[in-house]
Amino acid sequence: MSSNIYSVAAKARQSRPIDPSEPFDVSSVKGKTILITGGASGFGAAFFREWAAAGANVIIGDVDDSKGESIVRAIRIATDNHNHHFIHCDVTDWQSQVNFFKEATKLSPHGGIDAVVANAGIAEVNPTFNTPKNLDMEEPPKPNMKVIDVNLMGVLYTTHLALFYLPRNPGSQPVDPNKSTDRADQSSRDRHLLLIGSLASLCPIPLQTLYGTAKHGVLGLFRSLRCTAFTSGVRVNLVCPYFVETAIIRGPGRAVLAGANLAKIEDVVNAASRLMSDTRINGRSLVVGPPLKIVETEEGEWQYSGQEDNGTGTDVSLWEVHVDDLENTDVFIRRMVGLMNAAYEMNGWIKWTSDLGRALLLTATDATRIFPWRRRN
Predict the structure, then answer these.
(1) pTM confidence score
(2) Which of 26, 84, 258, 291 is buried deepest, with most CB atoms within 10 A?
(3) Secondary structure of 124-190 in HEC code, one letter for each residue
(4) Long-range contacts formed by 52-56: CB under 8 A, 24+ apart
């Protein structure tokens, strides 16, 4: 990671790139309070089971009350921990999310929230923007924006609330990627926002226009937050799963993917657990794909070598993306700011005075337009 005075990565407290072969200890989540939206099924339920088994206190929100209450009952019994809770939460409803965070804070054993997982999402079952239109109609029907409401607006609501509650977590400290690797240090109170993106955050998926738009928005949110959230001491990370064997893939999608390798949900859980358990990791985005055996060519390119047990190569299912964003930003900002400062100094007081006079004139003109009665005085 860059350490010069122009380093955005260093200022934003971005951690070093992730080494997938490096071990991590999921038990460091023990005693922490983790909120998961969309926690009653799919990835959310899988995260819930893994982190509850490791000793975390997990509070899930979902619109499916029956599934939510059922999974909480089962995991309370399995873990002998009654600090797991279900709270009805519609992520598209601001007040519903506010209530979710408020109630979760009250239910937390230590009165705070260590981590928030913005997981709730739906697929585009009826691809609004790709459905053939009846051109004889006077006007097209209003598009169904439910996917945007859940997958993007819902995530924005969750993020807004997370950035309010996480810094208030009692006993927590601002993110520090250089802190000790000691077990006790890793188990300290946390401030972590984990966003769940998708392969659709990185590339288009046919007939999934709104889904892709929403997931691209989540990626943009992550890339913006990781150079700003540090001001509240919050660490922000992103997981982008490839097609995974879950209920979100409907019949047509399964037909298109017939014969293709799918990612494993345990690999998605593993990636999320790595980010969740290591409190030094900040500003990192992981793509989880199907397990593949990879070999590197002499030219430095990666090639698929098969999945046979006796095949050569390295088993890979985890890739980090947008690794150098902030380092590249360093170069851009350094040059841009340098040029702007040089131009400012060359322009001197004459241009400054001229610009200030123009600003005052425009202000007076605007005031006359907004308050017309002043013309009579």
Answers:
(1) 0.83
(2) 84
(3) CCCCHHHCCCCCCCCCCCCCCCHHHHHHHHHHHHHHHHHHHHHHHCCCCCCCCCCCCCCHHHHCCCC
(4) 52/78, 52/79, 52/81, 52/84, 53/78, 53/79, 54/26, 54/27, 54/29, 54/30, 54/273, 54/277, 55/27, 55/29, 55/30, 55/31, 55/79, 55/81, 56/29, 56/30, 56/31, 56/32
Q: Give the H or E element holding residue 230.
A: none
Helix (H, G, I), strand (E, B) or coil at 248: coil
What are 62's two structure tokens? 């979902």
Q: Which of 157, 165, 211, 242 is catalytic?
A: 211
Q: Is there a catalytic annotation at residue 215?
A: yes
> Catalytic pick from 32, 215, 242, 264?
215
Q: Provide the token pair at 23.
A: 């071990």
- Are residues 98 and 161 in contact, defined by beta-carbon separation less than 8 angstroms? yes
Residue 6 is a catalytic residue: no
CA distance 16 to 365: 52
Nearest Cα to Cα of residue 241 among 284, 212, 201: 201
Question: What average pLDDT does the structure give for the chain?
Answer: 84
**Residue 220: CB atoms within 10 Å:** 12
In the beta sheet, which residues pair with residue 285?
238, 321
